[in-house]
């Protein structure tokens, strides 16, 4: 059997090889790692669907219209010039329709060229992939020491200014690596959803090829000339569809290799980010050490050569104390600035992660909308969301630091002339005479303080800048995370979590139920899987004791309540306090069972493990609902507050009481199940049985 060649936008491919591409791609997807098992599942399904589509396409190749070449851009532009009227004239409706058709044909040619460029870029990446993969694997296999001794010794020999420059360079390099890592992770997410997008693209391209083929056959049957705009547009549409078809097929066939390459790049960048973070921390530690040494040296050198009577002078001691306090402040501010830098890097990493998850969710929803697999993917995305911890007090700290900057500016102006300030201090001291022996060391101490100010002011500025940036990133992270979580919850609400309840599902229901009975997740909630509660269970004891006390006082409370009801309407015994007292007594009578449930719930929540904590949280929710409904039902008894004190009709009160009972009965199952973690749809035995 001869193999017929097919022209797909300039790419000659045997017709039989088209099916082989999809079959080989289907085989390649079987090698997906366990952490991307959902991609493997989708790929196997997509492989078979694409194979069917391509088989349909091969059947269409018998038409002679397939080999029709598209018109060139020059031919279309020449035809447009012929149709355009002279200057100052408007084309009629028929001419305008032809002009619009030719302009659409030009747009199709531009789209075809863009698809061809994408295909060429893809082929170039695939060609370079083996060499890049070997380089990445070699780089990953190398045993790299993040902080070698030689490098650490070289850093320790540098001065403060050089270390600060190195720190800025390392921080900038860390940000660049984090940005590249975010881009690689986004590309990796794109490879995970590419099978579905390629399937849809192949389906649309196949349909476009068939429509353009029919259009060309219809035009040929009516003997329409090839220079006709309709004929040109049909050929450009055919060429565009063929080019896109070739692109989608090639993307599908090379997706596994490119995904592996992206994974290797991600692993290497993660290692680089870790190494760069360690380098930044090392440089920050060395910068702190250098600043501390410089401050201590400046304080010590100020009076080291002075006589003892000068060094022990009160003014000198006061100046030394102020310098030492400012030195300690510099160390504290530097440490706080470094802490803010680390927090900023962490928040920025979390923000990039949330944005990446948001992009991934959009791609997954667009690619596999309506699929049961989408439910599992969305749940995995929700579990991958970072826990956002809002660091309070940062706004107040920023305000305090800004005020401190104004105070430092004032001190700088005061210390502008150190010698004059020293003489002024000597003159203002009671009973002191101006002595050059004291002026010089005081002036030297003031100059040392000015040097500390020169270091402290830019440190405050950097800390303020970092804190403001951290605050903005925290707000963005909180807003984006909440929005993404809400979107995922909405998608999970609407997504199909189970197969349709058709006849086939009903026929398999008995087998599903038997399997659910033997292997269902509900068995993990049985008491035989529980462990003995720890000391945290003692938190439920006070509630249980309170319930026991209310049960012992129940008859006394009922007698007091009945006495209050009997006194209603009597002139001398009735008062405004009777109704609040009656409501309070009803609340106490309704509390024993909710307190028992709440006590057991707290014991399981704080003393249990695993599923026991989920049950404890559910019991706490039920206890709260039970307390409200039981209190309301106590008020609605036949001889209760509603009838005896508010004079409600007994029949109406009985109906309300009955409705409240059914309300509680319907709420208990919901509150028992809803707070627990929802089982993923992919593990639902009844809903997703193959």
From TrEMBL:
InterPro entries from the entry?
MscS_IM_dom1, MscS_porin
What region holds the Mechanosensitive ion channel MscS porin domain? Answer: 89-317
Recorded hits in Pfam families, A to Z, give: MscS_porin, MscS_TM
Which interval of the chain is the signal sequence? none
What superkingdom does the record give?
Bacteria
**Where would one find coiled-coil regions in this protein?**
92-279
What transmembrane ranges does the database entry give?
Answer: 536-553, 582-606, 618-636, 656-674
Q: What keywords would UniProt list here?
A: Coiled coil, Membrane, Transmembrane, Transmembrane helix
Q: Which residues does the UniProt record annotate as the domain Mechanosensitive ion channel inner membrane?
A: 539-673
**Protein name listed in UniProt:** Mechanosensitive channel MscK
